[in-house]
Amino acid sequence: MTPETSSTGWQTIARVAPYLWPQGEGWVKRRVVIAMVFLILAKVIAVTTPIFYKAAVDALGGEAPDLASTLMLGAVGLVVAYGVARFGGLAFSEVRDLIFVRVGQRALRKLALETFSHIHHLSLRYHIMRRTGSLSRVMERGVKGVEFLLRFLVFSVGPLILELTLVAIIFWAVFGIFYMLVVVATVAAYVTFTLKVTEVRVRIRQEMNDRDNDANQKAVDSLLNFETVKYFGAEKVEAARYDAAMAGYESAAVRTGQSLAILNMGQAAIITTGLVAVMAMAARGVAAGTLTVGDFVMVNAYMIQITLPLGFLGTVYREIRQALVDMGQMFGILGQSAEITDRPNAPDLKVTGGEIVFDDVSFSYDAQRPILQGLSFTALPGQTIALVGPSGAGKSTIGRLLFRFYDVTGGAVRIDGQDLRDITMESLHHRIGVVPQDTVLFNDTIRYNIAYGRPDATEDEVFAAAQAARIHDFIISLPDGYETTVGERGLKLSGGEKQRVGIARTILKNPPLLLLDEATSALDTQTERDIQDSLRLMSKGRTVVTIAHRLSTIADADRILVLEAGRVIEEGRHEDLLALNGRYARMWAHQSAEEAEIEG
Description:
Blueprint: H1 9-20, H2 26-60, H3 66-71, H4 75-121, H5 124-129, H6 132-174, H7 177-224, H8 226-231, H9 235-288, H10 293-334, E1 356-363, E2 372-379, E3 384-388, H11 395-402, E4 410-415, E5 418-419, H12 425-430, E6 432-435, H13 446-451, H14 459-468, H15 472-477, H16 495-509, E7 513-517, H17 525-539, E8 543-547, E9 559-564, E10 567-572, H18 574-580, H19 583-599
Parallel strand pairs: 3-8, 3-9, 6-7, 7-8
Antiparallel strand pairs: 1-2, 1-4, 4-5, 9-10
Helix pairs in contact: 1-10, 2-4, 2-6, 2-10, 4-6, 4-10, 6-7, 6-10, 7-9, 7-10, 9-10, 14-16, 16-17, 18-19
């Protein structure tokens, strides 16, 4: 995967905020406001609960507290009031979650969709360089990080800060400034220690993520190349590679666990020290007669009430920090600019005849290595133009430029006079059908894979496309017919069967332009001949650019271009090129001899 620039923590939070307060969606904003109201009510009730507890203890001890006198409640009534207040705080918290859950899930869905769509809009160059396994992990962790951040940052950290503030104010008002200072000092020390240790842990966790990515990528590569591993008896080699990657993950995971133990011990020491200090001050006040036993109990209740979420804060902060790292990587992907984009207000491509023109085209993937150098040719409407030549001559590059996976670095590619850089890519892609050398299918049914060419097609249209590709009879002979699952990348089908499904898919798409990228070169001779009939049928009435390795498949093309080092060195019909007795004639003679030897 190409390096992405991770967003900082504050940038990440700023990126998420609009999903919680979107423009033009009033229902979302109303839910957020109502949830915040219930959040505040829950915390206000929570901090008043120990006051009822104190009053009940004093009433049971024979002291008449002011609250009991004011409310005219006895000890039992105060206990009931304590229970009601405690339940009210919990109930308001649950109502808050009930209201907010739809907002959070909606934000999660929109962000996941934006990331998924953005990756599909990135250039072919990015996808060639990326590593699928690592990219999927980044997406997975990033989306989970968003969910965690919404749940804990909004409903754990924010409410905790509010609760700590209210408790500090109550301590100051009821017990004096020294009690408040002890509480504030305890919280400050706890937070400072947690932040410093957690920063160290985040760096270790990032290394653990990198090791995890590496191990996962090796596993994905090995499984995708299962047959190759078997061919070379390399199971032990693959296991050793995977184990070496997991050893790095193990080392980082051990250090993560050790640092967690240090963090937990330090947090426990700070919280215990603060609790003991406040309780000792309260005990002295009771002994001196300035505080009641109820006050002592209330102090204890408040300290327990804030230390429990503080203990949880350590874990929450660490996970929030990690979530920000994971989300930062995901937003780093979102920050990747698409190399090929539509111009503002670009019109759709209008195919009136289907003329394809390469006008003095130059192109290179790397400035140091030119691929096409001043290439010019024209495919008239309805013509079949064949591109042949040695590997590296630029044949596949021409197909990629026609589909606008890349923009030319010089000259222009036009369809019916329209420069591809001036029209929308969506309209271009809809009007070109591609049959590649290796048709890759989705791990779904045959019906789904054929209908992918036009998802709104009827069942009869799907059947007709399969019949035109001469695969319908094979499909209905299967136990599950069109509902047969083809396996990952179509591995349950043979090469010829996959190609026929790909051809059926393209026939269903019904594009005016066709690009055949060595569509039969990976097949045996008999299968190739059978599929050539399907390709010829599909090519009728369409402008076709076909990239060929076997010259016998393009002998009937309207024009053949022989490429070498990015230039056209010979051009003409099959018979004309043979008569020239040049490069094409030598290639034809060589391949004919090879085929005769194989058949003999």
